[in-house]
Amino acid sequence: MASVPTAAAQSLPVEPSEGGLGEKLRGVLGYMRRNPPLIVGLVLLLSLLLFCGIGALVYDLNRARPLSVPPGLPPAADYPFGTDNQGRDLFAVMVAGTPLTLRIGLMAGFIGLFVGTVLAFVSAYYGGLIDTIIRGVVDIGLTVPGLLVMIIIAIAVKGNLSVEQMALVVACLAWLYPTRTIRSQVLSMRERAYVQVARLSGMSGPEIIVKEMLPNLLPYLLASLVGATASAVLASIGLEALGLGPLESPTIGMTLYWVIYYSALLLGMWWWFIPPIVIIIILFVGLFNLSVGLDELANPRLRRSV
Amino acid sequence: MANSTVNNGAKPDILRVEGLRVYYDTPRGSVKAVDGISFALKAEERFGLAGESGSGKSSMALAVMRMIKPPGRIAHGGVWLDSRNVLALPEEQMQRLRLAEIALIAQGSMNSLNPVMRVRDQIIDGFRDHDLLLPRREMEARIHELLERVGLRPDVADMFPHELSGGMKQRVCIAIAISLRPKVIIADEPTSALDVVVQRQVMETLRKVQEDLGASVILVGHDMGLMAQFVDRLGIMYAGKLVEVSPVADIFTTPRHPYTQMLIASLPSLEEKGEFRGIPGLPPSLLDVPPGCAFHPRCPHAMDRCGTEEPLMKEVQPSSWAACHLL
Amino acid sequence: MRADYVLKRFGIFLIIVWAAATLNFFLPRLSPQNPVREKLTQQALSGGYLQSGIQEMVKEYEAKFGLDKPLWAQYLNYWDDLVHFQFNYSIVSYPRTVLSMMGEALPWTIGLLGVTTLLAFLIGTFLGALMGWPGAPKFISNYLLPPLLTLSAIPYYVLGLVLLYVFAFQAKIFPIFGGYAAGVIPNWSSLAFWWDVAQHALLPALSIILAAIGFWALGMRAMMVTTQGEDYMIFAEAKGLKGSTLFLRYAVRNALLPQVTSLALQLGHILSGAVLVEIVFSFPGIGTMLYQAIRANDYFVTQGIILGVITSIGIATFILDLIYPILDPRITYRRA
Amino acid sequence: MTETAQSALLEARHVTKIFGGGLFDKTRTIALEDFSMAIESEPPSITAVVGESGSGKTTLARLLLGLADSTSGEVLYKGKNLRRMSGDDWRSFRRDVQVIFQDPFEVYNPFYKVDHVLTTPVEKFNLAKSKQESRALVEDVLHTVGLRPEETLGRYPHQLSGGQRQRVMVARALILKPRLIVADEPVSMIDASLRATVLGSLKQLNQDFGISIIYITHDLTTAYQISDNIIVLYRGSVAEVGDVELVVRQPQHPYTRLLVGSIPLPDPERRWAAEAPAALSVKRVDGRRCKFVDRCPSATDVCLTGVPALFQTNSYRAAACFLYQGSPVLKAEEMDRVFVEAPERRGVRRPDADGGRAAATG
User: Fold this and answer.
1) What CATH code is assigned to A36-67+79-298?
2) What is the reported pLDDT for C165?
């Protein structure tokens, strides 16, 4: 079998085309067709952004505040998503809250990925005691239920959290998983002969990381960012639903908190909980597909698996 | 090519391969890994199939076992064992035929055994799935006998693969391969991961069990030295085709095909030092094999005809066959 | 199994408990607020106590809870209590102890989580194994996989809310909240009570199982595909083994190993999700208790639950670590 | 030669490398044990280091290249310890000592075209003042190793064959005009018909450019073809050392005999001798005795008493075996005394094989 998989493997990875821009574009489109999760993910997330963007332009977001509209109304022409018990316009809440939730996720995701990447490189590159410590902390940190640790943190810093503080709380644990996965990637890459050749060609350590390793890691880092963002959103919504979030901000998680707090379900106020649920589903399914798509891009061996 | 089936000597043919083609479908077209190969294997014969990477030799081995997986497929041809066409058997019969009549010693001796099963159970599995399970004591005796036959101590049966050295693992594979006394053993690069000393021991073990059993062996590989040491008759593959089939002594003394000639000349020896004679040019991609004779772009004797007309196998002298327009 | 492997795993378990307990102790104390004082002040105000008495009361309570001593003494004290399973009293439900409250809630959570995790793992792994096997029916990959994958992306509790609304509120097939019908006195020797519990547990369980199956199926499928590329699969097929032998004893057996590793890593994650499911269904487990404690600022209960749960997860991981070498004979030889 | 040891280009002194053996790690492997060797740049020679897997040959390569640190002992570049060298010394070390790795695919970063491995050293060592000059330099070395630049540059590694890729690596090493190249199994992953071209390129580096080569391999045949001197390693220790003609054609150490006897010669008339080779060894030999004793057909009680020193059986060879304990002992750091200098440079009379054997037995 030695010969054939090589031939097949050569045809599969993202072939660097030597043609012009049009050909490259066609190549990208052709690739997208072979990677449906990427398209599904992008379409879902873009439509969510579109909803928020257009909504913010045409709708009065002040109505997301409590007592700004009559409470407890079902959807109608004036209030397309209805209003909640405390007099918030739920359409405005969704338009204003989705970007807030995304912001928490992205901030924590970025911080987590950045810290994780740095630690992963430090750990994998220097090895020894530093590596043992970092690996130990990560392995132990990952077995512990993250939500509970964040609860301790959130309670400790309690007061009224801002959206940014919320992101920081979530970021406290967001670096664990990226550190673990990126470390193993760096570790295997460090042993690659091309890294050693680069060293023998006179490249310095940082230069090798930037020029030889990072380019190959990029698709992987992108997939990790999406994964870290999704985890952060999940964690933030969880904390918020427990009442440990930014009480004054109309985020998706806080909306769920109020839903549970006021037992909207038992009151039959379906319009109160269906919008956040739908947005959560679109958001997570979008992020999930995007990360699967990017994973496939980063690790073409999985392609055409079955 | 069908008439090129090589036959000579008194021993009957045990396995015949006729016009076999194995294609792998890729987005860029069909990779013709095996492209019309015919040969016959005689009883108790050791036959070698030599080729460099990309010559299709491993696909050839898997095709005879009918183990080509998608995107690969057997596009054409027949593999006749006695009077049955192996390629036309129903799947269940094919399953029973493997190991019982044709056994494979696969490439990658380091990982050919299931890492989480003891050697004993891996041997027994073969018996069980051929409905040949013996009473416990007899089974145990059979396992001991098999292990001893390949030069291993009986307590190896209780070990896991990771407790064995590379050479021991490959001996276990040989023990499994001969457990049902097959007529044909296909050994695909059986020693590619082993050191020379162990390689010699494993090859001699293989020769010994082959002679004990009276089985035939097809040795697939790239190492011409190993071929010279082990086989009776040798087929040289280039770009998915056989270019020459001759008794092994003839191949090394009077190679007929220019590719064989250059391949033999490129081999380093302990006789003379100095000259490094490689074959200029590159082996073709199996996606895009040159028309006519696949070797013509690298051949010093190429004529106009070679680029257009595919040479057929000819019997150059009794039992020596080659496919070249020069002959 | 070698003793040093077991010892090392046990050491890791101890480190987990130590780290969790220490965080649990120090983090709240770093905060500028004093939870006890805050809570008492709140209670005093709502109860209409006189301002003047509060200071003394706080003092009295602080002495009772040991909050007036220096930090290191508190820390030692804290460990002394932990080692003796003294988790303090609940501030809200004083004089009930945290331990007794947890003792009531923990079995519910372990029951729900244990059953659902095991079921989801088994079903998901089995489906994944079939999806990654060329001989298996195609409808699993084509029709079962996409919805399962979609569900796996959604948080458990969101799925729980949907199920609750559709099956409990609208269709009224299942009860809406609780672990058993309101007003019933738990009686585990009565079959009727078990039936009642089962009805109440079904929706929470379903929301965890449905959302988790996809995760396990996806992981198993990928491992099956990897496994089929291994040399031992080629050799096993050449041994003339039957499809079922190849599937079970060679492919699934090996693909299972990373799944078990993954199970150990996912326990914490699953639990985080399950906590919120309990809250959505007002299931009488640890999650609901935690939610109420957080809402009521019952800080000792919160602490106790978090520590108790992390310890439980640590034990579960330790058990999985002990099982793993039985599945994979190589493990003690690799870096143990 | 020994008096120049002070300023040898590269020197290993009593180098030992042990893997594992940490706090939680019970698997301790001695990859290389008390190895000493000085490599002079003049006259340029080719020294083969031959061994099976686990012999420590790749560890040796990594130590000599400064890619790994030894557990004890030191590696010196022009008399300076690699571990304590200044940045300038490192730059000069990198220029003087270059590498060719085993896998001609792995050495290429899949993100870049083939050009990358050639232009990086040019940039890093300021070998060219302009883009054109750099291009000319690259094309020049490609021509030297027999590649056509227009068929090589601008391509991705997977678009070239294994032989082409490895020759590009030879060109890369050449571009720095090093004085020593460590070639770690450079042809083991290349097809036989293309192997000769790579070996030819290596030989050319040695003859035309005066570059010394350490040729690390498991393959005695190619080692014999290309090298002047040979070091046979067994489980981290030197088993036999000397002139390649002598060592390969009349091996003295039982291990070398076993190795030579196991080579599958491409000659059906000369098949493996009938007698069975030494048994497979399962357990590792521990303690202070000959490492080969468990597999050795000539083992006697003396082999259990200690580790055999290198016995110099004639002026061009030595073997670490008690069979030759009558011969003078060669200290580990004097191993290179038995090396012949490249004959075509010095015109030194080459010891003819029979004379060598007579001296050994005498």
Assistant:
1) 1.10.3720.10
2) 87
Which residues on neighbouring strands pair with residue B245, listed in sequence order? B235, B321
Q: Is A81 in a helix, a strand, or coil?
A: coil
DSSP readout, B30-42?
A: EEEEEEEEEEEEE
- Structural domains in chain B? 13-267+277-289+312-322 (3.40.50.300)
Torsion of CA A192, A194, A197, A201, to 10 degrees: -140
Decide if D59 touches B, using CB distance below 8 A. Answer: no
Q: What is the pLDDT of residue A124?
A: 85
Cβ-Cβ pairs closer than 8 A, B with C, add up to 87
**pTM (predicted TM-score):** 0.84
- Interface membership of D25 toward C (CB under 8 Å): yes
Chain C residue with Cα closest to A244:
C294
User: Helix, strand or coil for residue D38?
Assistant: strand
Mean pLDDT of D232-250: 92
Residue C333: its chain B contacts at CB < 8 A? 162
Q: Which two tokens stand for residue C134?
A: 């060329």
Q: Which of A258-272, C46-60, D227-241 has the highest mean pLDDT?
A: D227-241
Distance CA D40, CA D63 (A): 17
pLDDT at B271: 76
Query: Which structure tokens are listed for B219?
Result: 């040795």
Q: Which residues pair with B246 in a beta bridge?
A: B234
Rounded Cα distance between C110 and C278, Å, is: 12
CB contact D110 to A (< 8 Å): yes
Peptide bond into D157 cis (omega under 30): no
- Paired strand residues for D98: D181
The CA–CA distances, whole Å, from C5 to B163, C321, C322 equal 18, 9, 9
CA B91 to CA A136: how far, in whole Å? Answer: 51
Question: Cα D273 vs. chain centroid, distance in angstroms?
Answer: 29
Residue with tokens 């690069």: B189
Poorest-confidence range of B244-258, C3-17, C116-130, D14-28? D14-28
Nearest partner of C81 among C62, C69, C106, C98, judged by Cα: C98
Please indicate whether, in this complex, the C-beta atoms of D94 and A201 are within 8 angstroms of each other: yes
Q: What is the pLDDT of residue D351?
A: 47
Smallest Cβ–Cβ distance between B106 and the set C134, C238, C330 belongs to C238
Contact (CB, 8 A) for B168 and B130: no
> What residues of chain D lie within 8 A of the CB of C335, using their CB?
24-25
- Predicted confidence at residue B10, as pLDDT, reads 60
Domain ranges of chain A: 36-67+79-298
| Predicted pLDDT at A15 | 41
Whether the predicted pLDDT of C245 surpasses 80: yes
Rounded mean pLDDT of C80-96? 73
